[in-house]
Write a structure and sequence with these properties.
Elements lengths: L1 E13 L5 E12 L1 H12 L5 H8 L3 H13 L19 E9 L5 H9 L4 E6 L6 E7 L2 H10 L7 E9 L11
Antiparallel strand pairs: 1-2, 3-5, 3-6, 4-5
Helix pairs in contact: 2-3
């Protein structure tokens, strides 16, 4: 049996003086061996049919379907996706940009503007020097420079950026069970 921490749950109570007291409790979900087999199978190939998983686990297709719905409901499974090869589409440069903001309060608006740039595929609110750490896919270095000079550095609140170009992705995986 495995337990997975899902999220913090906030309970709000009011004391005698009508002050709000917030307490957090960690919610967990127990996964048995069958859940683990289902997750491992789906991680290896998200297109595996319910029928095939049923044969692997030895339970009915309906039971597999119910377990998958339970895993989705409890946010153990966040979704499924098709992964496109960006290089085939002409995006050969992967860059990471550390973005410094002049004020932390500008983060929300800066991220909103970064969302409007299709080449920005990830944004992270980080500790350390940068306010935002972003991942970009670009056609080449010139395309990256154009994005930096004409879009990202013109966002209100961006004081400067640091750019790192990935030479080769050496690891890309999901969390192991």
């Amino acid at each position: 049996m495995y337990s997975i921490l899902l999220k913090n749950i906030y309970f709000i109570n009011y004391d005698e003086m009508n002050l709000v007291i917030m307490k957090t409790f960690d919610q967990t979900i127990d996964l048995d061996g069958i859940d683990k087999i289902i997750l491992k199978t789906m991680l290896e190939n998200a297109r595996t049919s319910i029928l095939a998983i049923s044969k692997i686990t030895g339970i009915s297709g309906a039971a597999v379907h119910q377990r998958l719905k339970k895993l989705e409901k409890n946010k153990v499974i966040l979704g499924s996706q098709i992964i496109v090869n960006p290089k085939i589409l002409g995006f050969k440069t992967v860059a990471f940009i550390g973005i410094y903001l002049d004020k932390a309060m500008r983060n929300r608006e800066a991220v909103k503007q970064l969302k409007s740039i299709p080449e920005v595929i990830e944004c992270h609110y980080t500790t350390g020097n940068w306010s935002i750490f972003a991942k970009l896919l670009c056609k080449d270095n010139e395309h990256l420079m154009e994005l930096l000079n004409k879009k990202i550095q013109l966002i209100e609140g961006v004081s400067r950026t640091e750019t790192f170009i990935s030479l080769q992705q050496q690891l890309n995986r999901q969390i192991m069970l």
